[in-house]
Amino acid sequence: MAGMALAVGGTGCADTQKPVFQEPTTFTVNAPAFQDEFLATTGDMESKETFVLTCSQPDYGFAAKANYNAQVSLTGEFKDEVRDENDEVVSPATYATIQNQDVNNAAMSLRTYDLAVAMCTLLNINSEESWEAYLANGGKLEGFKVYMRATCEIAGVAGSFIASDNTVSYNNVGLSYAVPTAGKIFLVGDVAPESEKINFTAPTADNKEFYQDYALVEPEIGCKIYAGTFLMPSAEEAHAGATIDNVDTYVQWRFFTELNGWADKSVQVASHNDDFYKLPINELVETGVYNGDAVYGQGNWGVFLEEASDITMAVSLVDPAKPKVFFRMGKWDVTIAPDAAGINEPVFTAPEAE
Description:
Layout: H1 2-16, E1 50-54, E2 67-73, E3 82-83, E4 89-91, E5 96-98, E6 107-111, H2 112-122, H3 128-136, E7 144-153, E8 162-163, E9 168-173, E10 184-191, E11 198-199, H4 208-211, E12 215-217, E13 225-232, H5 235-238, E14 251-256, E15 268-270, E16 278-280, H6 283-287, E17 289-293, E18 295-296, E19 300-303, E20 309-316, E21 324-329, E22 333-338, E23 344-349
Parallel strand pairs: 16-19
Antiparallel strand pairs: 1-6, 2-5, 2-7, 3-4, 7-8, 7-9, 10-11, 10-12, 10-14, 13-20, 14-15, 14-19, 15-18, 17-21, 20-21, 22-23
């Protein structure tokens, strides 16, 4: 009995012990197995191609769920950015950070696109003009030696950040032009340019310049939410003899992710799968707000406007299988914030008065 009591007492003591955090002092990144083989990068922002970099796990005093990422340098130096008292950059960082696609895994999965972005950043390539100047001045595209080190940190824990003691390299890396830009989709429908009235201009490459005025743009690069404010004509301007009883005469629209013609439903964010379908949403005028689900198809949204009106539109492709639309009467600024479930959605705020 005494032995049992001792065993129980010992177990109770162990259960009350809490892990004690200690700042790690050493951390190692492993040399890539194929470091001398050619590593191609890509300028395609949608590419899922990755390469691997592995590291040890720092000793935090307990088994911690930590975040692992990589830093890249073209010189072997890893110096932080320096700013002056006015918060102006005196000297830029000599490295760039690449986000691990599996952030809690010490066997890091790194995108070749992100590596290309890091290399362009370190080479001061930030536009097509600077890329063309780089090439014109004899800038190379292959044979880069890229130095890397690993970082580790427990989210929200001060003193947990550590960079690896050593650096490793990939010794034959190709350079691609990769400067992130905000994504666009296009409003196609009854629109009202200042100089003319256009009804459903063909969404083709030949009309690419025209559609720059009807582009919905990501407020944050890569957020997959697209927004813009557009002056829409009155129903009468769009369709002579328009009446509220005839949905065919409403102001109508849908969205295209690519300008490759009418036939490809996979690039059309619509109210319905069927062509010539019109979903009336006059609650947009009555309440000023319309939120709804969308599909990939050829149906339009339609609203009866008695006069030309500004409408702010946002389209979410965060879940590409479940597109959503958000419409507001008037001019609004659109930002991005997570909803209660942690999914990003557009946030509409009134623009500041000029």
